[in-house]
Each structure stands twice: as structure tokens, then as C-alpha cells.
Design a protein that fits this description.
alpha+beta, 7-stranded mixed sheet
Length: 132
């Protein structure tokens, strides 16, 4: 049985709370966090994504060149966004009552595989939400 949880992040002080999605107690951002520790390219571009996330949490409008609403199959009250830097992508959910949820991230070169994984994850998450 799949269980989803949200681990809220204290470092984001905004109008909307920001958290990470956990699937069966495993953080889905873990791959991106490990890459951040050892990859200088990701270390340089990570602040750009965090600034976009901070603006999103404070309901500021974001340029379409940096934030794209994805048209993936989801459920009511759930929107999926891709935050972009030059080489990185960060995928987030925005829920009516939950706030902003970091789901996963990766390099632009891995974007197609990440979007397929994201779509599968969203279907699982929506099914989980509907059962609750």
C-alpha cells in the first residue's frame, strides 16, 4: 500500500506553506538533493529555483519563461508546475488546502523521463487523496 505524506519546510516563510512529498517515508527530492551536494552546475542554479519557489509561495506572478503550468492528468484542486533554470527543472504541485509541494527535480536533458515519472506519480497521489 502506498502512503503519501508532506514534510513541511520551515525555511520558506510565505503566504502558502511549502513542503516535500514523501512516498512510503521516502523523500522524492532525494535524488536532486544528492546531486546538489556533488554537482557544481546544480549548486550554481539551485538558488534561481529557490527564488522562484519563494515567489510562488508568496503568490507573486512568475514569468512564463521560468514557470510553466503543466497539462498533466491530475485531480480537482491540484495544479502541476515546472520551475526552470537554464539546465534544471523542479516539479511542484499546488494544492488548494495543502500549499506548494516539491515533488521532484532534474536536469533539462532528463526532462522527458522526469515528466513520465511525474505523471505516474500524480496518478498514484490522486488515487491516494481520493481514498482519504
Amino acid at each position: 500500500m502506498i502512503i503519501f505524506e508532506i514534510q513541511y519546510l520551515d525555511e520558506f516563510e510565505g503566504v502558502l506553506p511549502v513542503g516535500k512529498l514523501l512516498r512510503n517515508k521516502k523523500c522524492l527530492m532525494q535524488r536532486m538533493e544528492r546531486a546538489l551536494e556533488r554537482d557544481s552546475l546544480i549548486q550554481r542554479e539551485w538558488p534561481v529555483l529557490m527564488a522562484l519557489l519563494h515567489d510562488m509561495a508568496n503568490r507573486r506572478s512568475l514569468p512564463e519563461s521560468r514557470c510553466r503550468k503543466l497539462r498533466l492528468r491530475s485531480c480537482p484542486g491540484l495544479s502541476v508546475f515546472e520551475l526552470k533554470s537554464k539546465h534544471l527543472r523542479l516539479y511542484v504541485l499546488r494544492e488548494d488546502f495543502t500549499g506548494i509541494v516539491l515533488v521532484m527535480g532534474g536536469r533539462k536533458t532528463e526532462q522527458m523521463e522526469d515528466l513520465k515519472s511525474l505523471q505516474h506519480l500524480i496518478v498514484e497521489y490522486c488515487q491516494y487523496r481520493m481514498k482519504r
